[in-house]
Amino acid sequence: MADERFPYPLRLQKFLARAGVASRRGSEDLMTAGRVTVNGVVVTELGSRVDPAHDIVCVDGRRVEIAEHPVYIMLYKPRGYLTTMDDPQGRPCVAELVPRDIYPGIFPVGRLDKDTTGILLFTTNGDAAQQLLHPSKHVSKHYVALVEGRITSENRKVLEEGVMLDDGKAQPAEVDFPKRGSVAWDAVTPEGIRVGQTVVGLTIHEGRKHQVKRMLKAVGHEVVFLHRDVFGPLALKDVEYGSWRLLTEAEAASLERIIEDRKRQ
Fold it and tell me: So which residues are the catalytic ones?
């Protein structure tokens, strides 16, 4: 009898992604590396399909299954941690900060630089990264930065119209200035603010590497401290620095609506 949630066989890489093992591309890499078995047999062919109701799928000898409901976790990422679930060099990584023992298939959606703090989403929903981070579908993200220098009206206009970077023109950003003493202000001024520095907020709709730092540097402002307080419909709240919490039902529902809407696009 077929699993009512999956009335038809799934491609193995899609099954692995839905189980939260890795992204679909990452799941394909696991398959081609010979690390995935189905009913005890190594499967490397990317077109292979599995029946979730009957087939036993293992990665590195450990069985993986698709949970009835995906898990979503919000981490307040501290400075000094790499956004990776494993680091061969033994450096601190975010995997140490989330409950992998409780949710073994959890993985981060996107990344934050080692020295950047703020909201980082984790999930067991393999569709999440593809739908939230696809180049044509990126959700908006709000960053707060402490920068050297004053933001002039000319520089603000360049950022809002789209600054030119070495890999092409960035999409227009929304610029704001958090109030002194606000949560956003405090997040980027843990050591105080010096004369000549500015706290500025940017909302972007892309996900290029070091994008906010490069955008601000392109208009003459070196970033001293960077923090992300909004990711799509999620705002960083009710979680301590370096800690995590499960999303509320309302937060998870808002996220899943976006994921489902984009799958239909």
Answer: 113
Confirm if 190 and 241 have CB atoms less than 8 A apart. Answer: no
- CB atoms closer than 10 angstroms to residue 60: 11
Higher pLDDT, 88 or 176: 176
pLDDT value for 129: 80
**Cα–Cα nearest to 210, from 78, 77, 74, 83:** 83
* Spatial contact of 23 and 129, defined as CB atoms under 8 Å apart: yes
Q: Is the dihedral of CA 116, 122, 128, 129 positive or negative?
A: positive
- Sign of the torsion angle spanned by Cα atoms 148, 154, 160, 164: negative
φ, ψ (nearest 5 deg) of residue 32: -65, -20
Nearest to 103 by CA among 256, 253, 244: 244
pLDDT tier at 255, thresholds 50, 70, 90: very high
Give the containing element (helix H, strand E) for 47.
none
Find residue 174's DSSP bridge partners: 203
* Residue indicated by tokens 């692995």: 16
CB 23 within 8 A of CB 126: yes
Asked if 36 and 43 count as a contact pair (C-beta separation under 8 A), the reply is: yes
CA distance 219 to 46: 45
DSSP H helical segments within the chain, as ranges?
A: 12-18, 24-32, 126-133, 153-161, 183-188, 211-218, 249-263
- Asked whether residue 243 carries a pLDDT value surpassing 90, the answer given is yes
pLDDT at 8: 67
Three-state secondary-structure class, residue 141: strand
